[in-house]
Structures are given as structure tokens and as C-alpha cells.
Amino acid sequence: MDDFITRLADTGLYHRVQGDLTAAGIIHRIAHKRFWLFRMLTHTPTRRAYPVRARSRIRRMIDQYRTGVNEAGPRALSLTGLVTALKLTRHLYEDDTLIRPIHDWLHNLITHQPDTTFRDTTTTITNHRKAP
Length: 132
Description:
Layout: H1 2-10, H2 13-23, E1 27-34, E2 38-45, H3 49-66, H4 74-85, H5 96-111, H6 116-130
């Protein structure tokens, strides 16, 4: 699994996904200058509803799991693994006191899944991010 994800990352997967999302109209490019010299290119969602929906789905799944309702399927668990590996928990809640406990809880959720695919993928992404 580790080799597969590393090979995907090394083949320009990020830029391909970015291009596909731009072509589909989900994100758009914005060019601006930084410090009046450096040209920067950023990508933002085309509609504000996209990130709002994604955050609400993840928060709903977290709340369901925390209350004992285990209805999340593989897609939700995969998204949870990505949120954990990429340390995006800070974007889910505005209350800073919730960020660390929820990140730890999500990490624990992924590491204790019976299917090792989620754990292996999350570990690989985390290790790839740490690599120079």
C-alpha cells in the first residue's frame, strides 16, 4: 500500500486532481500578486456550498460516531482518514479547544478499524507528508 500511494504522489496526482476539479468547474484559479512582485496562483471553490457541505458531512459523521451510531460507510471513513492524515481537523470546528481531542479521536477511530486499508492509507499519507 505504501509503495502504491507513494508512486501515485510522485506521478503528479495532486496536479492531475487539481486540473480535473478545475475542468469540472468545482474550483477555479485566481492569479494575484504578492508583495507586488511575486505572482501567486490559488484555487478556490466555485461555490461556497462545496466546502460547507463537506465540513457538515464530516461533522455529522463525527457526531454520530461519538453518540454510538455507527452508520458511516467506507467513503466516510476514507474521508475521515484523509482529514486526520492531512491535519484538517482545525477546519471543522471554530472552537480551538475541540480541535486536539477530535483529531485524537479521529486518529483513534482510524487506527482501530478492523479493515487495515484505512490505517495503512492514513499512515502512508502521514509519512509522505513528513518526507522532505
